[in-house]
Write a structure and sequence with these properties.
The N and C termini lie far apart (about 40 Å). The chain has 7 helices and 7 strands; from the N terminus they run ααββββαβαβαβαα. It has 2 domains: about 40 residues, no CATH class; about 130 residues, 2-Layer Sandwich (GTP Cyclohydrolase I, domain 2), CATH 3.30.1130. Strands 5-2-3-6-7 form a 5-stranded mixed sheet. It has a two-stranded antiparallel sheet with strand order 1-4. The protein is an alpha+beta fold and about 180 residues long. About 40% of the residues lie in helices and about 25% in strands.
């Protein structure tokens, strides 16, 4: 639960510490707007893991790629923005495809590092589906690298979590990575 009043006070204090007057006409509502923005960015929506029996016995990869996401770097409170590519090898259950995008959104709504986020998405799929394998690749640009420090705009960070048959079977791993790399 976010304490919006305390968050707004903290933003006001930060503005003062940075040499700005939060009571000026231009900044008077800024602390509340910033508090509301962070509340929105850091409040995950619940994911109802709608799954269905795999009655047809589908046993090939299910891949949803180019799922847009944004999250906040826990080290600088600056955004990182990118695309997720999520796959699984069904066993007894299949999942509603929108749930793959929803789990990406759910996990991203936290102070994050990309590496952990990648692992959390893979773990969710394993827990909810008990599939034969899982593949997750995240590609993101981090504003903490683009705007400060090294100032390297356009630099993409790529992380992966490959589990079960997607990791252990070279053919399946290759197919997943080829599907992620291919663009229409």
């Amino acid at each position: 639960m976010v304490d919006r009043e305390a968050a707004a006070k903290a933003v006001s204090d930060l503005l003062v510490a940075l040499g700005h007057d939060p009571t000026s006409e231009h900044l008077t509502r800024t602390p509340l707007r910033v508090a509301q923005a962070f509340e929105e960015l850091l409040t995950p929506h619940e994911v109802d893991p709608t799954t269905f029996p795999n009655e047809e016995g589908y046993d090939e990869l299910v891949v949803v790629r180019d799922i847009p996401f944004h999250s906040l770097c826990e080290h600088h409170l600056l955004p990182f923005v990118g695309r997720a590519h999520v796959a699984y090898l069904p066993k007894d259950r299949i999942v509603g495809l929108s749930k793959l995008a929803r789990v990406v959104e759910h996990v991203s709504r936290s102070l994050q590092v990309q590496e952990r986020m990648t692992q959390q998405i893979a773990a969710w799929l394993e827990e909810q589906l008990s599939p034969r394998g899982v593949g997750v690749v995240l590609e993101a640009e981090h504003m903490c690298m683009r705007l400060r420090g090294v100032k390297a705009p356009g630099t993409m960070t790529v992380t992966s979590a490959l589990r079960g048959g997607v990791r252990d079977d070279a053919r399946t791993r290759g197919e997943f990575l080829d599907l992620v790399r291919s663009r229409p």
